[in-house]
Amino acid sequence: MSDWNIEQAEELYGVNRWGAGYFSIGENGNIKIAPNHRYPDITIDMNDVVEEIKAEGIEFPAVIRFHDILRSQVEIINETFAQAIADADYQGEYCGVFPIKVNQMREVVEEIMDAGEPYDYGLEAGSKPELMAVLAYNDNPNALTILNGYKDKDYLTLALLGRQLRRKMIIVIEKYSELEMLIPLAKQLGVEPMIGLRSKMMVRSSGKWAGSSGDRAKFGLSIAEILNVIERLREEDMLHCAKLLHFHIGSQLSDIRKIKEAVTEGARLYAKLVQEGVPLEYLDIGGGLGIDYDGTSSTTDSSRNYSTEEYVADVVWGVKQICDLENVAHPNIVSESGRAMTAHHSCVVTNIVGEIKPAGTDFDVSASDNEHILVKNMRELYLSGDQYHPQERYNDAAGYKQNAYEAFKLGILSLPEMAKLDTMYWRILTDIHHSLDEENQFIQELEELEDMLASQYLCNFSIFQSAADTWAIGQVLPIVPISRLDEKPQVRCSIADITCDSDGKLSKYIEGTEISDNIPMHTLKKGEDYHVGLFLTGAYQDVMGDMHNLFGRLTEVHVYCHDDEPGDFYIEEVVPGTSAEKVLQTMQYNTESMAKTVKKQIDRQVRKGKLAPREGVRWTNFYERCLAGSTYLSVD
Ligand SMILES: *Cc1c(COP(=O)(O)O)cnc(C)c1O
């Protein structure tokens, strides 16, 4: 193992680059986690967590949540804003909210509320069911609740209920008609609403969510519409209810310059509205704080070219500068960061259940009588070793293979002949690849050899359930073995999931500072599990998954650090994944009657004497046990 060390593993998988201080590679070659930003010396060995999960009889795949990371992220954003506000002698406060659409899991929301309590950290909702959740879960009278999204009468009424409960609940007007609904409702119920105005921003953001701003944006009011809203509120003697100006130019903003531009535009609008006599108190800058998923610190869609400190400082100083110029009091700053709060705290751990090689190379290729000339030619090439230039050898092999294919279609080549020829073809390619590798040669045209020869590692999970954005929008998520990182990874492979969909695979991998089509992993050992982690899945991925092929939600394991025993951790809770039965029921199947039907058919075979009664019972029980079981592959 002298030709490989931890530094090289780090170089390859970039764990420190995307790990944000939480993830690294330990001396023993296992992934190491430092979940508490205040105590970076308290670390957990991820392989110990995996072993403990196995010991508890829990099957993979599983989502592992590190609640200490969630808490750390909440503390970091609040403390970073507090520091910047102090440094800038800024007169307003920071009043953050967590947008629950990013991860609505109850345990996640509870943990965030608990960690955020000292800072009066609040919640944001964008739909009626989310509003019902935040109404119950944000009971801190000093914390904001921001209500976005399109609203109907029930939505608005629930928001007014929040006001009756003395909560700081701000209804953000997304379109003018919502105001016309709200005014009579508030009067009729005798409740004074807190109103926010969402501005349709002129700045054009970039990246996957560029459509969130500009003239054609789905949400928000143009300047003309904002002025109409103001006028209408003034008419109704409700202008004092207008408390907040809101904007959100998109998620995962990769370029800090767009953020500065948006802050300038938003702050200017805020100041001008205050000068018009609107008694605003809050400026809400929305979400968008990015995550460096690919670890490149760049403006690619899966990265960001700034730090959290820089983001916060640019917001605070940017707003201050404009308000000072306009002679307007500094607003309280609200931000709705969701991705940045949650992405790091959870990961999917699963096992590799098989390897799909590009083509079989273990068929007996020894010569037999009366072989076709094409097979002979290929064998000659195969045995020629490195007599030829790699490029020439490749050209010949590809030519023979093409001719063989034509001959096979015409019925000239037999099945065994075709099998031998194909096997030798793949062995030749492998040879060429090794020789290029050893001599450190690079031949442009042979670059594709790497892809052609890559294996597929079959991974026990569904990307549609656990990593939807990798499929939908080409998001890069880091995937790294949990252990053996002190060993040189020898197999180039891509990761395929167990759905029947050809799309069901990861297509982008972090390899150093590049994005690759495949990634080096370790050879699989018989009788030994090979666990890999798909990291940074805590934002959106956890909750957006669908049940393609009826693969259900994963088992969840919630891990906490021990306060008093450094290096130790405990599993606080295990939430079982969705059973096959539950998944079928959501598709309207009656699983009870399915079990009965299958039992009836088994009984019929028993009556006919084709099955022993004892066997019949065994089959019936087995079917029922599978219904109650996991939707994923069981590995014994
Ligand atoms: C989605 C959304 C957010 C969260 O954005 P992140 O980029 O995840 O921080 C915040 N505000 C609004 C209005 C949103 O729609």
Automatic annotation (TrEMBL):
Residues 369-450 form the Arginine decarboxylase helical bundle domain. It holds the Pfam family Arg_decarbox_C. Residues 581-633 form the Arginine decarboxylase C-terminal helical domain. Catalyzes the biosynthesis of agmatine from arginine. Belongs to the Orn/Lys/Arg decarboxylase class-II family. SpeA subfamily. Residues 93-343 form the Orn/DAP/Arg decarboxylase 2 N-terminal domain. Keywords: Decarboxylase, Lyase, Magnesium, Metal-binding, Polyamine biosynthesis, Pyridoxal phosphate, Spermidine biosynthesis. The modification N6-(pyridoxal phosphate)lysine is found at residue 101. The lineage of its organism: Bacteria, Pseudomonadati, Pseudomonadota, Gammaproteobacteria, Alteromonadales. SUPFAM superfamilies: Alanine racemase C-terminal domain-like, PLP-binding barrel. PANTHER family: ARGININE DECARBOXYLASE, BIOSYNTHETIC ARGININE DECARBOXYLASE. The keyword Lyase applies. It comes from the Bacteria. One of its GO terms (molecular function) is metal ion binding. This is Arginine decarboxylase. GO terms for biological process: L-arginine catabolic process; spermidine biosynthetic process. It is an enzyme of class 4 (lyase). Its EC number is 4.1.1.19. It comes from Idiomarina aquatica. Its cofactor is pyridoxal 5'-phosphate; Mg(2+). The active site is at 500 (proton donor).
